Amino acid sequence: MPPVDNTMEKLVSLAKRRGFVFQSSEIYGGLGSVWDYGPLGVELKKNIKERWWRSLVHEREDIEGLDAAILMHPKVWEASGHVSGFTDPLIDCKQCKNRFRADDPRIKGTPGEPSGQCPVCGNKGTLTAPRLFNLMFKTVMGPVEEAAAVVYLRPETAQGIYVNYLNVLQSSRQKIPFGIAQIGKAFRNEITPGNFTFRTREFEQMEMQFFVKPGTDREWFEFWRHERMRWIQGLGVRPEKLRFHQHTKEELAHYAKDAYDIEYEFPFGWQEFEGIHNRTDFDLSRHQEYSGKKLEYLDTGTNERFIPYVVETSAGADRTTLVLLADAYREDEVAGEKRVVLGLHPALAPLKAAVFPLVNKDGMPELARRVFDDLRKHYNVFYDDGGSIGRRYRRQDEAGTPFGITIDGQTLQDQTVTVRDRDTLQQVRLAGDRLVEYLAERLRG
Ligand code: GAP
User: Rounded to an integer, what distance in angstroms lies between the CA atom of residue 358 and that of residue 234?
Assistant: First the structure.
């Protein structure tokens, strides 16, 4: 038997212990596949989102940002194909009322026939034939429920970009090719959620739609898929844990002509965390048809009018965060003692440094506080005077904090401090007033 990989269990436990991720509504027994980010988790995810935004919206001239509302006109989802096509085939057990995906390997016999046996209650002939079940969450809008319109919680952020594409184009004076980027929540009533924050019912997407002239779409598609792979590797994720997976005809979404997933080898196997899709002119053409508004682009150089093709890069902020956590998790030994370390890229680490007085006397805490107050003007840093210095280091190793700054007896004499590196464990001594500059050099990138 292959050894059991319990890395996920350890990661979930560390995430709770150190305040990265908590189960939603935990005191009520939790809400299925919904998670909350704690003090360190919210910083990590924010750093990832900021980096994504910076690399696409700020560092490029040809991409604009957008923040569209979660609630949209219900016709959007008819036009996009989600009302009719965003479905999973499901099977119900009439006896125990459990619901299964049609491809659930535990189901025996043929559902809908007397041979079909329920994997939960074990009864035969109680399973319905597969029925299509829409994954969109519905709610109602308006003061009186009966008369109010049904609206959906968006299952992808992309549609907010398509319906605003002309607004952005005209207000920003961009020309094709250009892109619109957006970060925001999306909701899907997933039937088989699981694996911690990997598949959840509420999640965040970081999506960019790049509008191009038809005929140039293949080229841009190639460009963006390599660019996105380069980006994730730039966050320090091990290249051997990353790969592309091209969608087969059967796997392609209803809007896509070609698609690649970027996959990471999680402890539970290779899984997608970002997709690059050639959505052609599908979405804009459909919105033109359903809204009756012209969504063509006029190329003023050639006087040509056309509906642009769209190359989409769609990443899950939560899944990317999980990739970074899983990739950073390691156990090693320091002086015969086991330690758990999150080797997060310093630019992404929730806390950049922790400040420790070696002992809580002789003026060390006062001096340490001064160092801390100075640093917090520049970085998210942490002050810790509880327990032995070894234990304080261990706690920060688990939090992924790249630097530990200790104020000791010598600091009182000459204002120098020691800086311990989380990964190499090397300690250097430097003048306290050089700290900001020292950290800046190492946190860049
Ligand atoms: N706009 C295209 C689109 O939404 P997708 O492949 O369905 O494409 C894109 O989703 C990304 O969104 C996925 O790669 C994943 O990172 C994230 N995602 C999708 N469903 C998710 C879920 N239930 N939980 C967490 N993340 C999810």
Answer: 36
Question: What is d(CA 31, CA 389) in angstroms, rounded to the nearest whole number?
Answer: 38
Ligand 1 pocket at CB < 6 A: 156, 158, 188, 190, 199-200, 203, 205, 207, 272-275, 312, 314-316, 318-319
Q: Percentage of the chain surpassing pLDDT 90?
A: 90
pLDDT in tens, 66-113: 999 999 999 999 999 999 999 989 999 999 999 888 888 899 999 999
**129-148 pLDDT per residue, tens:** 999 999 999 999 987 766 66
Specify the 3-state DSSP secondary structure of 136. Answer: coil
Q: Which residue blocks in 113-213 are alpha helix, DSSP H?
A: 158-162, 165-172
CA distance 386 to 392: 7
Domains 7-78+138-326 and 351-442 equal at CATH topology level: no
- 189 CA from centroid of ligand 1 (Å): 12
* Topology annotation, domain 7-78+138-326: BirA Bifunctional Protein; domain 2 (3.30.930)
pTM: 0.94
Distance CA 14, CA 329 (A): 10
351-442 has CATH 3.40.50.800 classification: yes
Delimit the domains of the chain by residue range. 7-78+138-326, 87-134, 351-442
